[in-house]
Amino acid sequence: MRKIISFLAFMLLVAALNAQTFTGNSGASIGAIPDSGKAVGATCFPLTVSGLPNGGIIDSTYGLASVTVNITHSYDADLVIKLKAPDGTVIVLSNQNGSSKNNYTGTIFNATASAGIAAGSPPFTGTFLPEGGNLGAVNNKQNGNGIWSLCIEDVNPGNTGTLDSWSMTFNNKPALAPPPIPACTSNAIAINTCVDAPFVCNLDGFCGSTSASFGAYEWTGLTDAFYSCKQSTIQNNSFIKFVA
Fold first, then answer.
1. Alpha helix segments (H runs only) across the chain
2. Most exposed: 40, 95, 175, 219, by fewest CB within 10 Å?
3. How do beta strands 199-200 and 239-243 pair?
4. pTM of the model
């Protein structure tokens, strides 16, 4: 029993040593979130990351695992929150969620949460999937040592707020990068199984329809973060896939 306990303690120590958390500057020290609507655009709060292993390369073995934010704001639906990586990759964390309620308090974004941020409610305390894309998209073998930014845009005037704090955690269980996007096609051939169905463009992420040589397919209710497969209501309920 003592050996088992010692082994578990060792494994926990290894996991702790492999995790690196970096905390960004707060709004209190570098300025509030401007309440000027879309005319001003996003205010970006920088965070310097250094000392990552493997020369700083982040990928599926070691990379970004989560982002935590604390924001004080009197109208959450005003806010568009994005993460920007050193190589320019941008992930939309939350886009005008929360209606007229207040704040993001202990809000954690990762790739293994059971629900997206849009399904939560202010102050969004807990763990959520980012709204606009897979967090693992930044773990694309770029050099993670450098300047990261949390960019916040207040898209409507009349309410104010500040970024109180934010942080990023890197470890050996990172968010996995999404699989390559299959080539799109404007025509789909009906097929009886979702696994074998061809991919079809869906108008840059918006639900719509596409034409096939023998009719039109329509789809609604896109829910999957990357791609989905929906059953057609025509042509004998055959299946098509489309890029989300």
1. 2-18, 27-30
2. 40
3. parallel
4. 0.69
Q: What whole-number distance in Å separates Cα of residue 76 and Cα of residue 96?
A: 7
Which of the 8 DSSP states describes residue 7? H
pLDDT, tens digit (0-9, with 9 covering 90-100), for 42-81: 889 999 999 999 999 999 999 999 999 999 999 999 999 9
> In this structure, are residues 233 and 181 in contact, taking their beta carbons and an 8 Å threshold?
no
Instruction: Please give the Cα distance from 18 to 125 (Å, whole number).
Output: 25
145: pLDDT strictly greater than 90: yes
Find, among 74, 20, 33, the residue nearest to 164 by Cα.
33
- N- to C-terminal Cα distance for the chain? 50
SS3 121: coil
The answer to whether 58 and 138 are in contact (CB under 8 A) is yes
Instruction: Region of 56 please: left (phi>0), alpha (psi -120 to 50) or beta.
Output: left
Residue 64 three-state SS: strand
Note the pLDDT of residue 158.
Answer: 86
Sheet strand arrangement including 199-200: 199-200, 239-243, 227-231
